Amino acid sequence: MITDDAPCPCGWGEPFAGCCGRYLSRGAEADAPTAEALMRSRYTAFVVGDVEHLLRSWHPSTRPADLDLDPDVEWKRLVVLGTDRGSPFDDEGTVEFEAHYRLSGRRGVQHEASAFVRAQGRWVYEGPIGNRVA
After folding, report:
1. Which residues contact 4 (CB under 8 A, 6 or more apart)?
2. Alpha-carbon span 57 to 86, nearest angstrom
3. Could you tell me which residue ranges the YchJ-like middle NTF2-like domain spans (predicted)?
4. Which of 29, 10, 39 is nearest to 112 (CA)?
5. How many domains is the chain partitioned into structurally?
């Protein structure tokens, strides 16, 4: 488990508690103000195994009934490649990223452009626009 003062896994350089920690299930003090902040919090949720946050931040029309995370995947690094819209004043946005991981001793990269929309006033993940695993 990550401590509150540890660097947040999302890569923004802030301590976990003041960064994505405030959006995850154990804290849930606030909703992410932008599509990018939500995407970073979802990456962090994968790192720490917070299935509740992943499901809660997923649009109801595309959300799976349940989610089983692979405990053998080690998420290593997030690189945000770009964003389109998704500000506090938008109703939709796109975030393109690479999530670097290790599985069974091998490195991998998940490259995705994700669609985000506002639902009931808060950002939610709608799904991948394009997705490939390298």
Report:
1. 15, 16, 17, 21
2. 15
3. 34-126
4. 39
5. 1
